[in-house]
From TrEMBL:
Gene3D superfamilies, A to Z: 2.20.25.10, 3.30.300.20
NCBIfam families reported for this sequence: organ_hyd_perox
Source species of the chain: Streptomyces beihaiensis
InterPro entries: KH_dom-like_a/b, OHR, OsmC/Ohr_fam, OsmC/Ohrsf
Pfam family, one: OsmC
Name of the protein this chain belongs to: Organic hydroperoxide resistance protein
Origin: domain of life: Bacteria
Family: Belongs to the OsmC/Ohr family.
């Protein structure tokens, strides 16, 4: 279900200069990075890139969703990690991305880990935002 503006409790604000080959900064100054295309896309690779920033945000958000689900299920996810791999490539519309979410949850068995990851994927805001738009693969 979509939220309305009155439901918003926090809004992140970031401004980009010169697109994929420039700079991105948040209005509060907590993030201020040079962005450059990676060498694989013909860039210098000197700075970060939008795919890395998306991977960082998605993995952090998914880890938070995993913790919420674990609390509801009474599962121990302490020591767990979530890695997001974001790939970019050409498609019929120009370019698109794919994501692989990999979770390591050392304190539960593989079946429980898979169930927790699937449930986290249902509640993670990034997963909800991308559902039906990009391919997201889940692994444990």
């Amino acid at each position: 279900m979509a939220i309305t503006q009155s439901d918003v409790v926090y809004t992140a604000v970031a401004t980009a200069e010169n697109g994929r080959d420039g700079r991105v900064a948040t209005d509060d100054g907590k993030l201020d990075v040079v962005v450059n295309p990676p060498k694989e896309q013909g860039g210098s690779g000197a700075g970060t890139n939008p795919e890395q920033l998306f991977a960082a945000g998605y993995s952090a958000c998914f880890q938070g969703a995993l913790a919420v689900v674990a609390r509801q299920e009474g599962a121990d996810v302490s020591g767990s990690t979530v890695t997001a791999k974001v790939g970019i490539g050409k498609n019929d519309d120009g370019f698109g991305i794919i994501v692989d979410i990999s979770a390591s949850i050392p304190n539960v068995d593989t079946t429980t880990a898979r169930e927790l990851v699937e449930k986290a994927h249902q509640v993670c805001p990034y997963s909800k935002a991308t559902r039906g738009n990009i391919t997201v693969t889940l692994t444990v």
